[in-house]
Amino acid sequence: MKQTVEDHTIFSIGLSIVKKKEEEEKGHFYICDNFNFLTLKQGKFTIDSSTGEFLVKHKFSFDRLFVDGIPFLPPSSKQQQQPSTLVDVWKGIMQLMARRDIPLVIHHGLFDLMYLYHSFIGPLPKTLSGFLKEISNHFPSGIYDTKFLVEQGDDHQASFLGYVFAKYDRLRQNRFDDKSTEAKPYFEIDVQAPIQLEQTKKNKKTEEENDDDRPTKRQDVRKEPYCHDPHSKLHDIQIILDHQMGPSIYPQVYSSSLDKDEPKTDTRLEGAHASHFDAYMTGFTFCYLSHTMDPIELKNYKNKVKIRGMHVPLTFPLK
Questions:
Q1: What is the CATH number of the domain that holds 300?
Q2: What is the pTM (predicted TM-score) of this model?
């Protein structure tokens, strides 16, 4: 894993910042700002052909990457170092998280932690124990892995992010209209409009004008949630949930507001493979779990990260 991270690079980083508003009688309310950093590592890096095919298939533009990507050099780079805005930004974010006791929330994110450390903090430690200690030092408020949290429950049938998000959104919706209880409260997340550079707006408009056959946001999400066969309805998350939970009486749009005055499609969230949408789904999942899990139990699961194929989590030392 260490060698893979050092040879490859990240093309985009999704970050969702979720802040709780004052509680109201109807439920709990949050504000969410989503950020997507298009990142361009300077110098050489490796990309697998399968990764490139996947990204292009899901509308990732390599042209835009090399034109608009934020240049950065990992702190461990042997090339001549220049001031890196992106590295400074992430150092500032981590310092703010530590100062305000804000935890980092990931979903099956061991690789994410390794890429984050290698790209913006320093060379990956040579030993696992060294890596665990360094991550704990840089995120003293703790780490929560929503995949691990979900799998601690008795009723989980799958724990991949798209399924968990869609299921929890339905359960949350069912508490609308005075069905909220203290044990199972209703909550909403108000997704703020994105901040876009003027050049980005122009590029997006040009892409939309030149692609009349581009599928809608809803089609993007439903078409290939996690199956390689785009024509198989048997692997559509919403159809699976209809079978498991019964049809929902609420519109299944990827927004957390059920206000009748809200638009039925949310243009503030991109397709299901956008990095900031993954971040949003992870934040949403943690909000749901924070209201449904026992607080002591949730605290006991801090700094425990899921490892593929293993029942025992990777445990980071607590600060």
A1: 3.30.420.10
A2: 0.79
